[in-house]
């Protein structure tokens, strides 16, 4: 792990990244509007990263059946391998895949 970090640190470049957080949150919420779909996405991402095990723990303020209780905390430790390839291209592609809020109903 230290070798990967050192290599990235030595070969990386600083670049300013500006994020419209409100718009990003709105787009993410629109994309994952179904109940617990974000957990399915976390599992898929872990599988794509080659994880052999995934743990997702979440706690809600109330355990009422068939309610939309908000998660008060979450975590997802995994044993995934670091991703390979051009991360900036992957990030740009991920941003392009987010839906346009004007078309979400």
Automatic annotation (TrEMBL):
Compositionally biased region (Basic and acidic residues): 87-105
Residue ranges of every copy of the Sacsin/Nov domain listed in the record:
24-71
Top-rank taxon, per record: Eukaryota
Q: Which residue intervals make up region (Disordered)?
A: 66-105
Start-end of Low complexity biased regions: 69-80
| InterPro entries, A to Z | HATPase_C_sf (IPR036890), SACS/Nov_dom (IPR058210)
- Pfam families referenced in this protein's UniProt entry, alphabetically: SACS (PF25794)
Name of this protein: Sacsin/Nov domain-containing protein
Source organism per entry reads: Gloeophyllum trabeum (strain ATCC 11539 / FP-39264 / Madison 617) (Brown rot fungus)
């Amino acid at each position: 792990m230290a070798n990967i970090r050192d290599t990235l640190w030595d070969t990386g470049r600083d670049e300013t990244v500006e994020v419209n957080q409100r718009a990003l949150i709105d787009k993410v919420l629109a994309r994952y509007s179904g109940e617990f779909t974000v957990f399915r996405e976390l599992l898929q991402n872990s599988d794509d990263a080659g994880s052999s095990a995934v743990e997702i723990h979440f706690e809600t303020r109330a355990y009422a059946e068939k309610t939309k209780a908000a998660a008060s905390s979450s975590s997802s430790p995994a044993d995934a391998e670091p991703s390979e390839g051009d991360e900036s291209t992957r990030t740009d592609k991920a941003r392009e895949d987010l839906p346009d809020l004007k078309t979400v109903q």
